């Protein structure tokens, strides 16, 4: 729930409450709206065309921007900056109030809290009944497990993996590259 002494807007789909109409709209769009925009290359689904455009640019476009610290390549300056903050930044300014974990980004902290400290799993897979905390995790599960979608392409050979971790393992074992 958003910080406020007075809550004026309630979600009709769950227990979420907000003090501003815009925050409720954002919550509904992010958590209760079907993903209708589909990537033609990997079947990833998005709620807005702007998110699809960002996905295409960061996942399917040539990576030409090099990190000056580790030489990893990126398609966008935004991806490079995020990488530097998450991988190379030593300062972890975002601390979890429930445990000793610390993170370099507020997003990392939010994901940690959802996965480690939130017990409510309100998103159920209709194919296998597995439960998820976030709608995006359910959609990713469906895409990867039930549709067999593959969207992580190796830059050195034709290999395409279902997940980033699988691609990293491939690069390490086949090409001797540690990312």
List the helices and strands and how they pair.
Elements: E1 9-10, E2 17-18, H1 21-32, E3 37-38, E4 45-46, H2 49-60, E5 65-66, E6 73-74, H3 77-88, E7 94-95, E8 102-103, H4 106-117, E9 123-124, E10 131-132, H5 135-146, E11 152-153, E12 160-161, H6 164-174
Antiparallel strand pairs: 1-2, 3-4, 5-6, 7-8, 9-10, 11-12
Overview of this protein structure:
The protein has 179 residues and is α+β, with helices and mostly antiparallel strands. Helix content is 40%, strand content 13%. It has six helices and twelve strands. The protein has helices at 21-32, 49-60, 77-88, 106-117, 135-146, 164-174, and strands spanning 9-10, 17-18, 37-38, 45-46, 65-66, 73-74, 94-95, 102-103, 123-124, 131-132, 152-153, 160-161. The strands form six sheets. The chain has a two-stranded antiparallel sheet with strand order 1-2. It has a two-stranded antiparallel sheet with strand order 3-4. It starts with 8 loop residues before the first strand and ends in a 5-residue tail after the last helix. The mean pLDDT is 81.
């Amino acid at each position: 729930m958003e910080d406020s002494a007075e809550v004026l807007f309630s979600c009709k789909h769950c227990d979420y409450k907000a003090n501003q109409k815009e925050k409720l709209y954002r919550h509904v769009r992010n958590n209760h709206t079907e993903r209708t925009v589909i990537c033609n290359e990997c079947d990833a689904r998005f709620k807005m065309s702007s998110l699809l455009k960002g996905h295409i640019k960061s996942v399917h476009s040539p990576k030409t921007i090099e990190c000056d610290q580790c030489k990893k390549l990126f398609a966008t300056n935004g991806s490079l900056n995020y990488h530097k903050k998450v991988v190379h930044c030593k300062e972890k300014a975002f601390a979890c109030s429930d445990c000793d974990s610390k993170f370099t980004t507020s997003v990392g902290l939010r994901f940690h809290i959802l996965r480690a400290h939130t017990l409510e799993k309100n998103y159920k897979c209709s194919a296998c009944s597995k439960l998820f905390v976030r709608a995006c995790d359910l959609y990713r599960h469906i895409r990867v497990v039930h549709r067999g979608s593959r969207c992580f392409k190796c830059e050195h050979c034709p290999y395409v993996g279902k997940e980033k971790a699988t691609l990293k393992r491939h690069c390490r074992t086949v090409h001797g590259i540690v990312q």
